[in-house]
Amino acid sequence: xxxxxxxxxxxxxxxxxxxxxxxxxxxxxxxxxxxxxxxxxxxxxxxxxxxxxxxxxxxxxxxxxxxxxxxxxxxxxxxxxxxxxxxxxxxxxxxxxxxxxxxxxxxxxxxxxxxxxxxxxxxxxxxxxxxxxxxxxxxxxxxxxxxxxxxxxxxxxxxxxxxxxxxxxxxxxxxxxxxxxxxxxxxxxxxxxxxxxxxxxxxxxxxxxxxxxxxxxxxxxxxxxxxxxxxxxxxxxxxxxxxxxxxxxxxxxxxxxxxxxxxxxxxxxxxxxxxxxxxxxxxxxxxxxxxxxxxxxxxxxxxxxxxxxxxxxxxxxxxxxxxxxxxxxxxxxxxxxxxxxxxxxxxxxxxxxxxxxxxxxxxxxxxxxxxxxxxxxxxxxxxxxxxxxxxxxxxxxxxxxxxxxxxxxxxxxxxxxxxxxxxxxxxxxxxxxxxxxxxxxxxxxxxxxxxxxxxxxxxxxxxxxxxxxxxxxxxxxxxxxxxxxxxxxxxxxxxxxxxxxxxxxxxxxxxxxxxxxxxxxxxxxxxxxxxxxxxxxxxxxxxxxxxxxxxxxxxxxxxxxxxxxxxxxxxxxxxxxxxxxxxxxxxxxxxxxxxxxxxxxxxxxxxxxxxxxxxxxxxxxxxxxxxxxxxxxxxxxxxxxxxxxxxxxxxxxxxxxxxxxxxxxxxxxxxxxxxxxxxxxxxxxxxxxxxxxxxxxxxxxxxxxxxxxxxxxx
Length: 714
What we know:
The protein is of the alpha+beta class. Helices cover about 30% and strands about 25% of the residues. β13 (about 440-450) and β14 (about 455-470) form a beta hairpin. α2 crosses α3 (about 35-40), α6 (about 105-120) packs across α15 and α8 packs across α9.
């Protein structure tokens, strides 16, 4: 049975909610104010007969007074509080943090799973369990849910936003979400539940995890140095995925608040500035119980809900295990439309006229795909290392199962990489690949710089590189997946300049705590690499934090690590030379091309750098991702070169694409889109991605041409 709050603090809050003071309660009970004060200050508790009278005075039942696991229903009811407009007349067109991410369930999966990993209760050695539930409502179930969220109170605010939708991006999204709900009579809920996590602990307003998620923007209060998040932006994906800008929350706390742990509930609404009945409203709103301590008892705070209320809000949790449930109201997946993932045939069978962005089957598939791709390492265990994460996805329609709960299995989604990681955990790696199914291990030095712009090296962290044969289910072969302490895939990259004829492989680079807690400079490596990640946490490179805390050249250490990793991969996957036996010698002589006795004439003029290797793939946003290797001639001074990315066409001039990113990896520097080569270098590597807005047609339908042109490439 759930442990209730202490009587004194509980009674004090009930008096505030009911708008009564101690003297008024004492008068109703026929007692002195001193007796009530003694209860409030926890110096004594009332007799059982007095408990009956207290229940009557508070308008509740005796069981509620005895258990104190919920607030009484007397006094201030649960309602929506809308933040008033700014006194200086300023207006916000929505929450800017939400624009950092697309309305994409795969981005949502990456950010929410990362947050759950960061809040895992590690002391019990069990994984954090994250379950995604897609639930489409229609008919009576939809009507009941609208009543539960007090839709009639919200309707004037949504109507105001719809009237100004043509002037605001957020307004257009919200207007489309409301029209979809009423015109098509359906609403998609997407719930994210985690278990064995800390929950939203802390006060409603003071520093703590609850306030960081529910009240504040751009604040990250993570539990450890190995945490994935650092910008405080990940939570914005919840609201970005809601076409109605609404997220409801039910948290079970690992540390009691107000003596309670279960069913701490609140809702947050993100809308743009609006005017309702002549009153301006700034944007956000909260669903909760009015706080008696706030001016006019208007500000809504979290409340301890009963089981019936939680069920009506579709927030019932499976157990009393700590963690949080986030319910995204009006979930949509606009990114799925660009990737052609709408299952028209399945929807026709279900008799549903879907617009694609709310296709529950496509959402289910894309969630499973993203979880398997980004968190395969976190869900893998072996030896004495346990998985950090378990994930699953299920899909319902009006309470009926559409797709059974599907547990994401890393051995299915990433068989080769899972095999490599397990071999590392179990100590079964080898020095070199000689048989199929083996996993080769190399340590790669990662030299960490000193902070504060000082020159020199703090120390060398030994990252772990694992290489094994690739299987078809892994996806693109010859890739390196890089990760650190939380075991989420951060960086995916190809290896430039591979020898011809190498067998397809997959590689894993373990850094920070992923390489082992006892590895030298493990905390420092975690700190450095975390600072080198952008808000998307999908690569390592130059960031503002890296520049401020280390130096503007600190990212070169990552480039050197990449160079070391690529060299180690090439050494591991290169086919060994055949022994020089007699038969082999005779065969080589028979096939040797005689050398010319006279050296060929060199062309006039200085030699130019030339492309010698190219790896290209299509990114998640539809961009070309390119890694190129350049062969450099022997010369005292090398000319600058401009890489030009073009589309191959049958006739006419080749359309030129713009670079969204162009960075040096080894042997060169990039300045205003021009390559400057390092003196004495014989090879150079650079990496880039194209600007999708410059693509005239869909990337999957094109062929790529990369050219190096002297100078600025005019």
